[in-house]
Specification:
Elements (H helix, E strand, L loop, with lengths): L1 H7 L3 E7 L6 E7 L2 H15 L15 H5 L3 H6 L3 H18 L3 H10 L1
Antiparallel strand pairs: 1-2
């Protein structure tokens, strides 16, 4: 949310939280951190314009975090790694063409 606040010049964000047990709704107003938004944008640009995918957290597929990660096969077995690079290249081209793909890339990174 800080990223959107930074881009749109918004100082506050609104979260609506629903308790799944009793359907109670809580409303939270948060102050957005523009510094975090700017930092996230810089990080996304570094990843988008990188020549190679980010380094692995570990080269060992038995590493605890890698065992829990749903992308472990991509990192350690090479499955779809080329496809991810292709997607990043396509988004990079879109961003170069019209500068509007940054939010799509942020969404893509969150999915990964």
């Amino acid at each position: 949310m800080s990223q959107y606040g930074f881009k749109k010049g918004l100082k506050y964000g609104l979260y609506l939280i629903e308790n799944k047990n009793d359907s109670d709704i809580t409303v939270k107003i948060v102050v957005l951190d523009w510094n975090l938004g700017a930092q996230m944008e810089r990080k996304a640009k570094e990843i988008i314009f990188a020549k190679e995918p980010p380094p692995r957290i570990s080269d060992n597929p038995a590493f605890q975090t890698c065992q829990w990660c749903h992308q472990s096969d991509i990192c350690h077995k090479g499955e779809r790694r080329k496809r991810i690079v292709e997607v990043v290249d396509n988004v990079r081209q879109l961003m170069t063409d019209n500068g509007t793909a940054l939010n799509l890339m942020l969404l893509f990174l969150m999915i990964l």
